Amino acid sequence: MKNESGQKVESQERESRRNAGIEEQRSGMKVMLGLIGMIKPLLGIMAVAIIMGCIGNLMATFITILGGVGIGALLGYFPGVSLKAVFTIIIICAVLRGVLRYTEQASNHYIAFKLLARIRHQVFASLRKLAPAKLDGREKGNLISIITSDIELLEVFYAHTISPIAIAVITSLVMVLFIGQFHIGLGILAAVFYVLVGAVIPVVNGRAGQKYGQEYRSIYGRLNTTVLDNLYGLDEILQYQKQKERQEKMEAYTEQMEEVNHTLKKQGAVQQISTDTVILLGGILMLVSGGMLASGGTINPGEAIVCTIAMMSSFGPVAALSALSNNLNQTLASGNRVLNLLAEEPVVEDVHSGVDVPEGDMCIKEVSFAYPVEKDLAAACTAEKEAGILKDFSLNIKKNTIHRILGKSGCGKSTLLKLLMRFYETDKGAVLYGNQNVNEIDTARLRNHISYVTQETFLFQDTIENNIKVAKEDATREEVIEAAKKASIHEFISSLPKGYDTMLKELGDSVSGGERQRIGIARAFLHKAPVILLDEPTSNIDSLNEGIILKSLLEEKKDKTIVLVSHRKSTMGIVDEVTAM
Fold first, then answer.
1. If you count Cβ atoms within 10 Å of the first and of the last residue's Cβ in the chain, which end, N or C, has fewer?
2. For residue 188, which of 201, 177, 200 has the smallest C-alpha distance?
3. What is the C-alpha to C-alpha distance for residues 221 and 400, in angstroms, rounded to an integer?
4. pLDDT tens digit string along 98-115?
């Protein structure tokens, strides 16, 4: 039995794993079960796909078998069989095989695309739940690869894996019974080789390639991150002549992917050779066994031929499973990453208490806080944390004042604003609005109560007006202009040929850092929230425009509480209180 200390360490390990974002590596079977669990709403269509697939594959097999029966009839082994009837049935089976194959594939792809849409919806819902704390500092390229290519790969699983497995099992059982009616030993022989081709080879090959599939998806994610970094940092790369280093980094990831892919292809070749060899061996053994039974008079030569043809022509479904195993490695690795994202717990759970933000001062009371370390498993399992960003820190921010916070980089100024927004929860102490703990206030009402301007304003690929209206979707043009004037961005917008209808390019690259910052401040003014949190809001703005913004803030403070994180001395003229951290 574990003692209290052991239980505490185990609890810390689980907590550290969640905080560090360490992904669980499920077995292939667990991933498959997790993905199959999403099919419940579409089980009826899946059943149709399986039934059509089974009948279609059996018809394809019996076309060949009937051909053998026809040959046997010509040789006199089946005297009561009409060749006309045989060829009529063959034609009917051929036509129905095409119809059934189409129905099976259409059903499978309908399921696949419906489920992919459903999974995307769940992934984005999960991201909304995890944001912002869990995504703070996360590899964006890796996340993009999960949302795009990983989910797309699941189409292979839903359209070309689930029903083929069921079809292979059912058709194999039917063929074992069919062959077994001639002789039970031949039926058992067929069953052994169906299991070897459809189960043993795929499982052995899958285990050998599982780690390579996971490694390939992981490298792919890191390559995506590097490409995004290069796009975001193109100006810096050109300025400091780092093109060669950045290109070498991308090439290194590409070479790693090629090496892993080469290994997977080698495994695929080995799997194909193994499958073909086992099928050939099975056919030879069936022919020899049938021949021996025929020579002993147990069955006639025609039946021996039919059994051999039946076995050799019915390996299609199980051989397809064997071929799936190599591609399935990457598919299951993608499925594991998607399932991890869906299972990920938010660092901070939203509160749905219905409790409003009370009037009064904001109080930071003996707060200690540190970000979780995001290192390797060893560090996470010891529940290590960074040196505390905040330690027993207290601060009182009076209502309807401008409170300036200053301090050296890394002292926790930005972190303090995130705690006020409840992006994170404190390790110790409390954040209070009035006398109400922030952890008890309804999260949606809290965020609506605050206008938060970060150091980096993100601009969407949309018009300038719509970018400002992010803060208030139903705002009128007049309200947008009023907010823009307070943020000293109206004159710049008016000078553009299309004014507020000007489209911003991707990543907002069509405007300068100062203009981007002022659009962010305009959002805060438009939101008209009782509390404004500003994190270095004028760091990229010239003194003239800064003066206009500071004047607007001074006018706003009569009915708003403003917290201003700033190093610039020019902000001193409008503040009521200053806290040095």
1. N
2. 177
3. 47
4. 999 899 888 888 888 888
Q: Which residues share a beta bridge with 364?
A: 395, 431
**Can the peptide bond before residue 497 be classed as cis, meaning omega within 30 degrees of 0?**
no
DSSP symbol at 319:
H
- Residue in 533, 559, 527, 528 with CA at minimum distance from that of residue 431: 533
Dist. CA 344–CA 21, nearest whole Å: 8
Torsion of CA 554, 557, 559, 565, to 10 degrees: 140
Pairing of strands 402-406, 362-369: unpaired
User: pTM here?
Assistant: 0.66
Please give the order of strands across the beta sheet that includes 402-406: 450-453, 531-535, 561-565, 402-406, 577-580
Q: What is 261-300 written as a DSSP string?
A: HHHHHHHHHHHHHHHHHHHHHHHHHHHHHHHHHHHTTSS-
Decide if pLDDT at 505 tops 50.
yes
Distance from the first to the final alpha carbon of the chain: 47
Beta bridge partners of 433: 362, 436
User: Which segments of 368-512 does DSSP mark as H helices, in order?
Assistant: 377-381, 413-420, 443-448, 464-468, 477-486, 490-494
User: C-alpha distances in angstroms, 328 versus 109, 128, 135, 235, 280?
Assistant: 17, 30, 29, 41, 24
Q: Could you tell me how far CA 322 lies from the centroid of its own chain?
A: 27
pLDDT in tens, 283-337: 999 999 999 999 988 998 989 999 999 999 999 898 887 767 656 767 777 888 8
- Which residues make Cβ contacts (< 8 Å) with residue 91, sequence separation at least 6? none
φ and ψ of 538, to 5 deg: -120, 20
Q: Percentage of the chain with pLDDT > 90?
A: 39
pLDDT at 141: 64
Q: Is the pLDDT of residue 385 over 60?
A: no
- Dist CA 129 CA 124 (whole Å): 9
Q: Which two tokens stand for residue 176?
A: 């074992």
Mean of per-residue pLDDT scores for the chain: 84
Q: Give the model's pLDDT for residue 487.
A: 92
Q: Name the pairing type of β-strands 561-565 and 531-535.
A: parallel
Strand order in the sheet with 436-437: 390-397, 362-369, 428-433, 436-437
Residue 561 host element (H or E): strand 561-565
Token pair, residue 485, equals 């004037």
